[in-house]
Amino acid sequence: MAAKSAKKVTPLMKQYNAIKAKYPDALLLFRVGDFYETFGEDAIKAAAILNIVQTKRGNGSDQETALAGFPHHSLNTYLPKLVKAGERVAICDQLEDPKQTKTIVKRGVTELVTPGVALNDEVLQSKTNNFLCALHYGKKELGIAFLDVSTGEFLTAQGDVAHMDKLMQNFRPSEVLITKPKKQAFYQDFGQDNHAFFLEDWVFKTDYANETLNDHFNTSSLKGFGVDHLHEGIIAAGVILHYLGETQHHKLKHITAIQRIAEDQYIWMDRFTIRNLELYHANATNAVTLLDVIDKTISPMGGRTLKRWLALPLKNIAAIQKRHEVVQYFLDNHTLHQKIQHQIKQIGDIERLISKVATGKVSPREVIQLKNSLEAIVPIKAQASNSDNEALKVIGDTLNDCEVLRTKIKETLNEEAPVNILKGNTIADGYLDELDELRSIAFSGKDYLDKMLERETEATGITSLKIASNNVFGYYIEVRNTHKDKVPDTWIRKQTLVSAERYITEELKEYEAKILGAEEKILALEQQLFNDLVVWMNEYIKPVQLNASLIGQLDCLGSFAQLAKENQYVRPLIDESFDLEIKNGRHPVIEKQLPPGEQYIANDVLLDRDHQQIIMITGPNMSGKSAILRQTALIVLLAQMGCFVPAEEAKIGVVDKIFTRVGASDNISMGESTFMVEMNETASILNNISDRSLVLLDEIGRGTSTYDGISIAWAISEFLHEHPGRPKTLFATHYHELNEMCETFERIKNYNVSVKELKDTVLFLRKLVPGGSEHSFGIHVAKMAGMPQQVLYRANKMLKKLEKSHSSEELTDKIKGMQEEDELQLSFFNLDDPLLEQIKEEILDIDINTLTPVEALMKLNEIKRMLTRKKASKV
Ligand SMILES: Nc1ncnc2c1ncn2[C@@H]1O[C@H](COP(=O)(O)OP(=O)(O)OP(=O)(O)O)[C@@H](O)[C@H]1O
């Protein structure tokens, strides 16, 4: 019997199965009454992610299925958690009023929320764009498009894999769309880290893309956007719009344009450089990024603009200088700076608010927020327009005070409008006579009831009459039992209590109907008026978006001034020269991380085309070589973003590309391939450099044996020196052999990061001084670790000899010879001491060619431990 009934699928589950079949990749939230329910696999996932109870449906039958749900009003709490966990969530709602239908309620998916297509504030981060990306593999090139549906920004580009990879690093999309047949290629080219979704191949077609885009923009060609030549990019952009349709996002008026990412206008940085410089993504957990240090923006638009500026520093000198001028102006005009910042603080996320207007998801309270934000723009516009700084004036003149929009919102909406329109009191008093009248009926009831009570008391002579209402019986007149006999016949008894009776009268019934009718009408009218307002507001999408962009810029520039003031940054000079002159430059992040009382040691870096094109920096580990390299790149980058820089003075011949490469540090554990990767990466630099490039090489060549490493580092430096572009280069190395290069190559100069050797420690002076280093530095570290003198002496001696040797075959013989020669020195031990034998073996086993300083240190530590143990056992 049970088995028979179990086979029968209920109409509800039948409907569920049909809808689920259309969205197999999504977690389906199925509205049943006041709940969103999930079933089967979805329920198991939802219960785990949301930490909600999972139950069963089907009572042990073979149709038993898992079930988990939550109240519909908690959607805003639970939905973001599912999306953040990487789920695609299909929201299936009831499409008709259950009260109006006798059969099963019609249901359908009203929205598919995916990580890249989110409008919900709980999913979005205010200072970060949330980009959806589509990538198309064309015949020669790849096309890419990015859309932030929450702000309406839509961008496209095309190029090779490296180029696409760099853009992905810049824009960090939350979701990437790719055609199914390219799944493997995508993982190979871009790794497994992206949240990818694979679509059918037919979506990736030129005609379809053009049609979709032209339909959306209501254009006949994409020429006007300057993207018509980007065939692959257009396909990617078409895929994005297609996907929005698929996810039930149809109201997209806020996507007003598509823009080409004009890479030629920005400094080129490849992904290694972006990562290595830790611009906005830390390499270690809790590490501080450049963005963390420089971000003083105070609005969501400013925060997002800053990220964009950081990813895309400018090359156009005039544009850079314009930004510098505004920053300087803010610094010179403190009061204006403060006033503008104060006003910006009052501005909400107008960019996302206007998107919500377009998508019809805006709440009454948000419309009020938008109006208040636009009001805060009015004084900014006036102040900027009245300033005597040209660039600021342009911003002021371009800002739109949106007066008509503000006035209309003000007269339509109540200033205290609720989030949920059903709460009532959304539309302002005095906006519509009809509404005012209804309100007076609905809300002036107290007066009317008081009068009725007075009349009835007089007519019946009952002194303790009461008029009230409850949810079950509506309005009633209550009579205490002592007066029961005085109740007129026309009253109808509704409820009996212990000490009283409740009645209704004809008049009370009529009154109730009128009030209820009025309340219903008020709600309907309010909804209609609010909807009309929102539709009307669509005309203001473009001006509000323009304001958002200008406020974002202004916030950024104000933030640069704030940063300069707080940290003694100076205005850099950008010109067309090829020189780089930094006086007393600092590393913006490290200087903020130093322990209290410690000062960052500033350094000069001078590079030019004629005398000092390449600087070879030697110095022991931890002396500050990498810091000098990175601070140089960061100073250039900050300057070309329009920011001031951490230095005493900086003169920068505009840079078009920044390359950084860091040699593999743990090649031994990672094997040959790491070295190959390092060489491949370096090769890509050598093939792409120009006369305005800045190249930073940190310990390149470290990932192989010493002599290979030296030879490669030598060859790379020689290549850069001889390159007609004469790219400016900083090369940090521990191969002091490279210091010899300056004798042959006139534009290579030696510098070292100075240290002072004290009796038993090394003091880092961190000053970059002219001149090379004469020897290796591993021993310094050993010294610092407090090695016994004998061990140090021995290590020093061995190293010196090894440095002189030229091939690894000679090493063993040499070491043997050295042992015989030096054995007497180690009088601390008995010659036949088994420990000595063991240490001997240890040292002989070391392959110095591939030994990194840290490993040397560890080895020495091991030997020290042996000796300490020996010493202790003797005592
Ligand atoms: N100019 C400076 N002033 C103060 N502290 C500094 C300075 N430069 C570097 N440091 C400190 O020294 C640490 C090591 O610097 P850095 O990593 O640049 O050394 P390195 O010579 O490149 O070492 P390695 O060869 O091991 O990579 C930094 O993390 C920082 O704390």
UniProtKB/TrEMBL annotation:
It comes from the Bacteria. One of its GO terms (molecular function) is mismatched DNA binding. Keywords: ATP-binding, DNA damage, DNA repair, DNA-binding, Nucleotide-binding. GO terms for cellular component: cytosol. ATP binds at residues 619-626. One of its GO terms (biological process) is mismatch repair. Residues 693-709 form the DNA mismatch repair proteins mutS family domain. SMART domains: MUTSac, MUTSd. InterPro entries: DNA_mismatch_repair_MutS, DNA_mismatch_repair_MutS-lik_N, DNA_mismatch_repair_MutS/MSH, DNA_mismatch_repair_MutS_C, DNA_mismatch_repair_MutS_clamp, DNA_mismatch_repair_MutS_core, DNA_mismatch_repair_MutS_N, DNA_mismatch_repair_MutS_sf. HAMAP family: MutS. This protein is involved in the repair of mismatches in DNA. It is possible that it carries out the mismatch recognition step. This protein has a weak ATPase activity. Belongs to the DNA mismatch repair MutS family. This is DNA mismatch repair protein MutS. It comes from Aquimarina mytili. The gene is mutS.
